[in-house]
Design a protein that fits this description.
single chain, 4 strands, four-stranded antiparallel sheet, mainly beta
């Protein structure tokens, strides 16, 4: 999982078996999320992160 802010990778995470991850490095704001696994990838733009809240995001991979 790559977390991108204005074209800059701000965090890299490995997800668990359910695709979940936790990041404490992010400020509140909007981010682009990219995931690559087993030769497939997916991207979601404009994910809004709020401090102190869990943000659920579904990323389709192909």
């Amino acid at each position: 999982m790559r977390i991108i802010d204005d074209g800059i990778v701000v965090d890299l995470q490995t997800t668990n078996d359910h695709g979940e991850f936790t990041s404490r490095l992010l400020f509140a704001g909007r981010y682009r999320l990219e995931v690559v696994t087993d030769g497939v990838s997916g991207t979601v733009d404009g994910v809004e992160v709020n401090l102190g809240r869990t943000t659920a995001v579904t990323i389709s991979v192909a």
